[in-house]
Amino acid sequence: MKIGLFDSGMGGLTLLEEALIQRPGADYLFYADTDHVPYGLRSREEIMQFTSQAVAFLADEGCECIVLACNTATAVAAEALRAQYTMPIVGIEPAVKSALAHHADKRVLVVATPVTIRGEKLLRLIDQFEDHDAVDLCALPDLVCMAESEQYNALPYLKNALAAFEPQNYSEVVLGCTHFNYFRDNFLTLFPNAEVIDGAAGTIRRMCSLLPPETNDAGSVTFYCSGREVTDAESLSAFRRRLERLRRMRTL
Question: What pTM was estimated for this model as a whole?
Fold first, then answer.
């Protein structure tokens, strides 16, 4: 089974790390569109174009399922891509349902890119729930670039960007961008009594449910940056370094 995972950059490694746990025997092609990151500040037309190009590349490489490991790309392009391809196209969305199931008498904060925060898809998702008025939204446009450059001390930026949200008012913080998982420790510092969650595990469970049973074959991972296969030791080391950071963050 060959599975493609696509993200605007390195945030999608969050889902690759989860996929290697839930379905380790697959052959994964991870496509990071590093030429065009960040998507969160681009137009919808650009996001649609770049995402379509990446999915076409992965399809041509023989992928039998593609995961849009990017909330922004999912919000903009998932419906159109599903109409174009017969193979499963699995998208990720902010874990609002889980957050609202656990928020009790406190509020839920969803943080994401500007495109995701402004998008109709997120607003429709939130409006499905009776207690939708307990959800607050905040765009964090600079966090993606900080993740891409491995600048993980985001506390000064986050303190300023989130100054209007009193920590004691929140029991749930939803990371609505896969890049934000690199900063889980930062969010826990600012919201020490909140649960910090994301949609990675649920997305990969959905992926697995759409696929045939796994065999006992050994799996593999091939990395691409905007369609160029990554083979040099330095770049491969950077991918491994980021995966290790994400593994540490999930244990917090």
Answer: 0.94
Residues 201-242 pLDDT 10s: 999 999 999 999 887 778 999 999 999 999 999 999 999 999
| 177 a catalytic residue | yes
Q: Which residues contact 249 (CB under 8 A, 6 or more apart)?
A: 181, 182, 184, 185
96-197 CATH, one of 3.30.2350.10, 3.40.50.1860, 1.20.1600.10, 3.40.120.10? 3.40.50.1860
Catalytic residue among 70, 138, 208, 225: 70
Among 63, 65, 177, 225, the one annotated catalytic: 177
What whole-number distance in Å separates Cα of residue 122 and Cα of residue 110? 10
Would residue 70 show up in a list of annotated catalytic residues for this protein?
A: yes
| Domain 2-92+200-250 falls under CATH 3.10.20.70 | no
Domain limits of the chain?
2-92+200-250, 96-197
